[in-house]
Amino acid sequence: MERLVFLLILCAAAFASIEENRGIEEEEELFEGDMKLTEDQMNELDARAAIYTGKWPGGEVPYELDSSISSQPGAVSAINAAIAEYAQKTCIRLRPKKAGETAYLSIFKGGG
């Protein structure tokens, strides 16, 4: 009896997989191998979506160094080097936060 139940579950799973993929052409581009996305969804996944959606206009991301780091010259130097390398390899530009800005990255010393 257990084998029969197992066999029925196995058959149901196999047929469900076939049914789910009906209507999807083999050559269609699937996100993560199994999801058919609309053009709008694909646009949201664009590597520069943060710029286009207005979250970080112009690709500029303000940041602030917490006092737990800003008082350590070696740490500040390492962070500045990392920011410069990030700017070379991406379209995102980190810049110091201006007074009054409320949306920014806070870089602080912590575990993890």
Question: Would you kindly provide a written description of the structure presented here, covering whatever features stand out?
Answer:
- It contains five helices and three strands, in the order αααβααββ.
- Strands 2-1-3 form a three-stranded parallel beta sheet.
- With 112 residues, it is of the alpha/beta class.
- The chain has a domain at 53-107.
- It has helices at residues 2-20, 39-44, 49-52, 67-70, 73-89, and strands spanning 60-65, 93-96, 105-107.
- The longest helix has 19 residues, at 2-20.
- The model has no long low-confidence stretch (mean pLDDT 74).
Strand content: 5-15%
Mean pLDDT, to the nearest integer, reads 74
Compute the separation of the termini in Å. Answer: 51 Å
Helix content: 40-55%
Individual helix count: 5
Largest sheet: 3 strands, parallel
Instruction: List SSEs in N-to-C order.
Output: HHHEHHEE
Report the structural category. alpha/beta
The Rg value, from CA coordinates, equals 24 Å
Shape: elongated
Low-confidence stretches: none
